[in-house]
Fold these 2 entries.
Entry 1:
Amino acid sequence: MRQSHLFTKTRKSAPKDEVSKNAQLLIRAGYIHKEMAGVYSYLPLGLRVLTRIEQVIREEMDAIGGQETKMATLHPSENWKQTGGWDNVDVLFKLMSRTEKEYALGQSEEEIVTPIGQEYASSYKDLPVAIYQIGQKYRDELRAKSGIMRGREFGMKDMYSFHETQDDFDRFYGIVKEAYFKVYSRCGLDAKVTEASGGAFSEKFSYEFMVLTDAGEDDIVYCEKCTHCANVEVSSQKEGDTCPKCSKGELKSAKAAEVGNVFDLGQKYPKAFNFTFKTNDGTEQYPVMGCYGIGTTRLMGTVVEVLSDDKGIVWPKEIAPYRVHLIGITGGNKDVAAEADKLYDHLQENGIEVLYDDRDARAGEKFADSELIGIPTRIVVSEKTMQEGGVEVVERTTGTAAFIQDSGIIEYFQK
Amino acid sequence: MRQSHLFTKTRKSAPKDEVSKNAQLLIRAGYIHKEMAGVYSYLPLGLRVLTRIEQVIREEMDAIGGQETKMATLHPSENWKQTGGWDNVDVLFKLMSRTEKEYALGQSEEEIVTPIGQEYASSYKDLPVAIYQIGQKYRDELRAKSGIMRGREFGMKDMYSFHETQDDFDRFYGIVKEAYFKVYSRCGLDAKVTEASGGAFSEKFSYEFMVLTDAGEDDIVYCEKCTHCANVEVSSQKEGDTCPKCSKGELKSAKAAEVGNVFDLGQKYPKAFNFTFKTNDGTEQYPVMGCYGIGTTRLMGTVVEVLSDDKGIVWPKEIAPYRVHLIGITGGNKDVAAEADKLYDHLQENGIEVLYDDRDARAGEKFADSELIGIPTRIVVSEKTMQEGGVEVVERTTGTAAFIQDSGIIEYFQK
């Protein structure tokens, strides 16, 4: 993409009412546009990042047998009344048609996916099944001050599974947990999972995937010597306690953002819709259901909170909008512009995605914009680099610069 | 994809309240699930088709310089009040938060994209710009009996452009028109475009892209000798008239489905938001705005209406959920199953996407399901074909069968 064609531009400042770091940076760099508190539009660069995050998640869900769908977001009120959610879910947006039919906006899709599961799974031979989608969700949040980390409209991957037995759900939860850790790792994040909260007296068990960040809304304690992690809200554990898991480490407390969750829903929804399957011995039984969420837009915001520095955003390679930010410092020299044009084509022909700053702007402005936008590798073409038969390559993460001969450029990205 | 793993199954019949042919076939074949009138979920096969249609549109919009975004669907009421749409658009869904803030659900995005354009385009140097998105739209329709061709929730590609002059909009409209015809052609449809309707006394000029089908809701007249086409609703032309364009053909009348439209919006929305740009001579001026829509789900429904036959759906190759439907007729013979497994891997290794019917079912059931699902090419592996060292290949469009030697299978798809 030639930057001269990209319709967005960097901005000196974000809107005054925007208090979150993630949204401030993303707005200043031209990734998102704020429509109101908790609602943002994704501009070309932002959509590219979001699409890559979605693709990472899609690959990991497909790899464990998840089947992708696109469920309705405009829900008949009947489904929500059947489960009790119509009166009990306070963040549910409700609306009414001209003909006074009531609808809910999807904040989760148990009310839609359970009847779908019921339609197609009538025998133990049809189980287990894991159905997911990636799309918009809506929550009537009282407060929305965390940028794209807590939206009234937001993106989410939500998967639902149906099982013959509790054991089979437990088995599948273990598989999903590994897939979730792969997703976070590919997005450059180090995540921890909390122990099941809720407990025996709750209708739901839940597991929460947490990333340490001061922008998070959760308080956790975690052990530095093992993987133990607990949400303070549902745990009596506190900083300084000896780790209850390894008995070696001392617990530390931290702010964290919940970047994923898993609910053991038991048979609640199948019972509400009278969804049974025929077991191997011929009896009818309700399946055990699980729900697995990852907020795609929240994940994007968390990456910005955790990885950015004082110059701007720092994208991990897998989810960066482009792999390379090519910058031509022409100083009016047409040969340099032609060389940069040639390199732009050459990189793309080799499957390397490039944002090409071909604008008529000062070098300092181009470099500052490049650091704000945060593409992993910057390549600079100038009179000086041309004379030396190569380009300057700067890594955004480390700031280290190196000179690469023209003949070695493609190889540099194949490492 | 192994069909034994696919959670959907074909059904003998669609829900009784489903009167449209497109939804009946898509439900029976397992592409979609009906939530209520005008609202459907897209199951794995359906999502694959929709994703391909979106990709065709994306490629054609990118090719003419369109820049993809993802705009909010939950809109602040203020934006709609500013343009007058809040009180005048009868299909607008409105809702209210717990804190009594009013929102609209996007049925079109002029109210969102105009402030975005205003944010980034302040000079004639920033124009023209074309911004599009592909996503969900909501319309409070009084009636929704056309399956996925008219939804209360539906998918749409909507693009918006801003121009210095009316002439520049006209130039760009010509380019979009060609891109639209490419989209329809790639989707297997033969589309016609109506002359501008509305006329000088209307605030809007519009062009409508029409596909002949009895499932359509529009009445048109068209000339068989040239490209002339007019919507009867806004034209005095009628069947039997001499074509006003070529003066040679006679007009015929037909039912048609509107699969796209273009609105010349003039300066209405820029004026409403006081969006001006600085011209070359230093004055401030409102840009001329255009809007370009293609209903993605409607396009999918139209393809089903137009191309299906009495056995089921017939997908064009570019938008089919899979390129090949591989059917193993094993009759319990493990060697045949192993051969089909091998071919499944071989096709996929060569980049050919395959739905593999590895189910334990009768040949007749597999063939009937295959015809209902409508994948372009069916490959049959059986004891008989193995003995002859090849496979049977049947084209869904023509029904013609051919025997292909094993060594020639990949080549068959590279033609």
Entry 2:
Amino acid sequence: MKLYDYFRSSAAYRVRIALNLKGVAPERAFVHLRKGDQRADEYLSLNPQGLVPSLVTDDGDVLTQSVAILEWLDETFHEPRILPRDAAGRARVRSLALAIACDIHPINNLRVLNYLTGTLGVTEAQKNGWYKYWIDVGFEALETRLARDGATGRFCHGDAPTVADICLVPQMANARRVDFDFGPYPTLTRIEAACQALPAFVAAAPSNQPDAE
Amino acid sequence: MKLYDYFRSSAAYRVRIALNLKGVAPERAFVHLRKGDQRADEYLSLNPQGLVPSLVTDDGDVLTQSVAILEWLDETFHEPRILPRDAAGRARVRSLALAIACDIHPINNLRVLNYLTGTLGVTEAQKNGWYKYWIDVGFEALETRLARDGATGRFCHGDAPTVADICLVPQMANARRVDFDFGPYPTLTRIEAACQALPAFVAAAPSNQPDAE
């Protein structure tokens, strides 16, 4: 197996956490997003979206889209499970994960920020305002859901990490890179701390990658 | 079961298609997004994200995030399957679906467009350029993947509709609402036509909903 990775990509960070939880260590290749490696023909032939991560399986299948990769990892390497066994629990975990993976992260992705400052000519201050705004909108809803729901435990769903935590921690890391106020988000902060007590999460952090700058 | 719906929401449109394919007809409630019904306390208490769709199950669980709802529907109402049975096929279908559900749709969602024209003061022409740009970027990659891959059949994956088609058709409908050039996308257009030959897709179209304007 081979993972196409970039230390600062939060989508790749998700997959790194899941691989660590499963105890799976693929070969690694690094795609430098800020240098534009993802737009090289060689990488585009692998992943026409030009995004990371991509995971090439031992069967030669090229898997893309981090949440699809997380699902595949859980279907392929069964223990520990990162999705609950019951359909209602799975729906809850997937919804929490997608509230980040669909509704926060893509809006703040590098290519969107480049369009804002390049094509639309917005200022750095406006760009930073945009970045924090979409995290706030997303985190407000997540905090409300997690704080009120009895299914929340030490982690987003019960007392073991799931795909929801795997999406939450990289998004929290993105927020930590800007001057973001975590005051309104005590439940998210508590769950992040529980995750960061686990070696699988620590080892996946951007600063602990071979390509970190 | 009760579906909170809005005729023009393409996330709700996905769920309507899946329900029709499964032959499941929940009670319906309509949340008028352009009038702001999604920000009323009553709806926010159900879905703190203030987005549609939401699906309340017969057990009283509130399911949110359309892709999570599609997964739940397939786990709960087994036939016809909208995800392949093999892990590699499931990964492929989920990746195609998420390339739309994560990387096109949220960037062009109503609330994002409102931020562009409101907070950032971009012109209508710039907003329309943004809208088409993100569809083009996403469709280019999808067209490349679908056109070259032997797993593509009459539909995105083989000869029966899956979650990938369920995400594709509403995104095509969004593109049809603007002056969008489908010329570069013959495979997407062919698959859309195959879907529109099925009553489940036709009945789910925005113009065929009780709340259509």
